[in-house]
Amino acid sequence: MIEETSEGKDHASRGLLMIPPIKKVGKIGVGVMGSNVAWACVVNGIETYLYDQDPNQLRRAVDRINGWLFDGKLPETEAKEASARLHPCGSLEEAVVDVDLVFESVFEDYAVKKKVHEEIGRVAPPHVLQGTNASSLLCTPSRSIRSP
Ligand SMILES: NC(=O)c1ccc[n+]([C@@H]2O[C@H](COP(=O)([O-])OP(=O)(O)OC[C@H]3O[C@@H](n4cnc5c(N)ncnc54)[C@H](O)[C@@H]3O)[C@@H](O)[C@H]2O)c1
Q1: Computed over its alpha carbons, how large is the radius of gyration of the chain?
Q2: How far is it, in rounded angstroms, from Cα 102 to Cα 49?
Q3: pLDDT of 120-129, one tens digit each?
Q4: Residue nearest to atom 20 of ligand 1 (CA)
């Protein structure tokens, strides 16, 4: 969605896309990077929906993130509020159906990432932004990703 602000109109007239505020994120793959990204999201006030194909990994991620939240660096109330923003999901669809951005951190394998992004493209609403944590793979917009 493009916001109808005067700044937005200015950007639109110059052919630039305004990115709306990100309030909810779907996090697909919650190993090392996915857990870190999810932690950064929840401490910054973003509702974060976690999905991993491995249910044990999902449980470990929630425990790991809570361990970081409650390590004494944040006031107890803030840690509790951030923890309440973590939403483990039983399916990829559940994690992407009501968010502003889906950020994928699955294995660094082109075929795996392609399949995940195709599934996100199928089940997420059209306005949802898709991002990847790829480190060495070259990324180009996929045909599975619809333009908003
Ligand atoms: N670890 C790092 O320091 C680092 C740094 C920069 C970028 N990255 C990139 O981040 C991405 C993730 O790396 P990582 O180190 O977190 O890997 P990881 O192995 O720790 O975690 C990957 C997770 O993805 C899950 N997964 C795999 N296929 C899936 C699927 N189809 N659906 C749902 N979940 C799935 C796995 O179960 C696992 O929990 C990679 O692309 C990597 O190159 C990693």
Answers
A1: 16
A2: 9
A3: 999 999 999 9
A4: 31
Residue 8 has pLDDT above 90, yes or no: no
pLDDT band at 54 (very low <50, low <70, confident <90, very high): very high
Mutate to test the pocket of ligand 1, among 49, 52, 110 (most ligand atoms within 8 A of CB): 52
Q: How far apart are the first and last CA of the chain?
A: 7
Please state the domain count of the chain: 1
117: nearest Cα among 141, 97, 98: 141
| pTM, entire model | 0.88
Residue 11 falls within a domain, yes or no? yes
CATH of the domain at 10: 3.40.50.720
Distance 131 CA to ligand 1 centre (A): 13
Could you tell me if 25 and 102 are in contact, meaning their C-beta atoms sit under 8 angstroms apart?
A: yes
Find the residues whose C-beta lies inside 6 A of ligand 1: 28-34, 52-54, 57, 105-108, 112, 116, 133-135
In this structure, is residue 93 part of a structural domain? yes
